[in-house]
Design brief:
The chain is an all-alpha fold. It has 14 helices and two strands, in the order αααααβααααβααααα. Helices cover 74% and strands 1% of the residues. A two-stranded antiparallel sheet has the order 1-2.
Length: 310
């Protein structure tokens, strides 16, 4: 990744702070959360090749952990952050051990993650502590101590902090020994095992890290909108968005999810604003995304960083 592109991304990230528009700040916050979730997916799906269709399970677990601790037990939402990360990471680790020890890979692993997400949705819809189908409404009390902000720019800053954390983790994977093990397993698991790499442990650790970061995104969502229910917490659409953000931006690259989130949200918002006919905007959105995937199979990041003579 060129230094110029990083400077451009950092400058773009700071622009919403110069605006007093809550609408602009909210759009920026949603884009930053999307980029953070895409980066979390990228750690497992991009660097590790662990394509997941059910990553929203970690998002929903983090969201419910935060909401339940606040509304049922009176804990501060600041404690919801480590609790959500531990829950998401723990579930990711256990899910990895269960599936990888069973030898599940590729599409089989992807379908299992989707099944996990659906199982959690059904569970959240059925038990009392989650509020069942009615969900959980968090009491409005704006203050820094309560992790609720009247100014959307503060929420955007929190989303940027999560994005920075996820990007730091991705960068460490790109240059570190653990990342080298993970990418070796992605390219040829049998060869990596022959060289002494403990593939199950490496993949499970990557899924745990990815799950912890995704769960933190769920906390940010609850603190921003003060409500969570099963269809929101475990929606397949959110899993698809995480995957698209990473794939369009460039799976397995550090900057890919950042560029992918900008592209996905720009395309979605532009098509919605230009076309008022119901159903047409999503269709155009899908066509544009297909064109990007077709002509830039390596993602936007690999296109903008390739040598000029390539």
């Amino acid at each position: 990744m060129t230094r110029g592109l990083w400077i451009a991304l950092a400058t773009l990230a700071l622009l919403p702070f110069a605006s007093h528009s809550q609408f602009v700040a909210n759009l920026a916050m949603l884009t930053a959360i999307s980029a953070a979730l895409g980066q979390a997916w990228n750690i497992a799906g991009g660097f590790g090749g662990l394509t997941s269709f059910g990553h929203v399970a970690f998002f929903g677990l983090g969201a419910y952990a935060d909401a339940i601790l606040q509304t049922r037990y009176g804990f501060t939402p600041w404690l919801g952050l480590p609790a959500a990360a531990l829950l998401g990471g723990g579930v990711g680790w256990l899910m990895g051990l269960a599936t990888f020890r069973a030898g599940l890979r590729g599409s089989y692993f992807a379908l299992v993650t989707l099944a996990f997400a659906e199982a959690f949705r059904i569970l959240a819809n059925s038990i009392g502590i989650t509020g069942g189908g009615s969900g959980i409404l968090v009491k409005l009390h704006t203050s820094a101590g309560n992790f609720q902000f009247a100014d959307r720019r503060a929420g955007y800053a929190a989303a940027l902090a999560l994005l920075a954390l996820a990007t730091f983790a991705a960068r460490r994977l790109a240059v570190g020994r653990f990342g080298a093990y993970l990418m070796a397993v992605r390219e040829n698991e049998d060869a990596a095992r022959a060289l002494g790499v403990r593939a199950v442990r490496v993949k499970s650790a990557a899924l745990a890290l990815s799950g912890a970061l995704t769960a933190l995104g769920g906390v940010l969502y609850v603190q921003s909108y003060l409500y969570i229910d099963p269809p929101t917490a475990f929606s397949v659409e959110r899993s698809v968005e995480m995957l698209l953000v990473a794939m369009i931006g460039g799976a397995g690259t550090v900057a890919g999810p950042l560029l992918g989130a900008l592209a996905v949200h720009a395309i979605a918002d532009t098509t919605r604003s230009l076309v008022a006919t119901p159903g047409v905007a999503p269709m155009l959105y899908g066509v544009v995304l297909l064109l990007i995937i077709g002509f830039l199979p390596g993602g936007i990041a690999r296109f903008v960083t390739r040598p000029a003579h390539a």
